[in-house]
Amino acid sequence: MSGRRLLDKLWDAHEILRREDGTSLLWVDRHLVHEGSHHAFAKIAERDLPVAEPGLTFGVADHYAPTRGGPATDAIARMIDTLSENTAKHGITCFGLDDPRQGIVHVIGPEQGLTLPGLLINCGDSHTSTHGAFGALAFGIGATEVAHVLATQTVWQKKPKAMRIDVTGRLGPGVGAKDLALAWIAKLGADGARGHAIEYTGAAVRAMSMEGRMTLCNLSIEGGARFGMIAPDETTFDYVRGRPFAPTGAEWDRAVELWSLLPSDSDAEFETTVSLDASEIAPIVTWGTSPEDALPVTATIPDPSLLQGSAADRARNALDYMGLTAGRALTEIAVDQVFIGSCTNARIEDLRAAAAVLAGRRAKVPGIVSPGSQLVKAQAEAEGLDRIFTDAGLDWVGSGCSMCVAMNGDHVEPGKRCASTTNRNFRGRQGRGARTHLMSPAMVAAAAVTGHLTDVRDLLRGREVA
Amino acid sequence: MSGWTTHTGPAVALDRENVDTDQLIPARFMSTPRSEGYGPFLLHDMRHDSDGTPVSDFPLNMVPNASILISRRNFGSGSSREAAVYALVDFGIRVVIAPSFGDIFASNSVNNGLLPARVSEADVDAAIALLADGPQEVSVDLIDRKIRLGNTTLDVTLDDVWQQKLINGWDDIDLTQTHKQAIAAFRAQHVQGKPWAVPVQQTDFRRAGRDTVSQ
Ligand code: SF4
Question: Which intervals hold domain Aconitase A/isopropylmalate dehydratase small subunit swivel (chain B) (predicted)?
Answer without folding.
Answer: 3-121
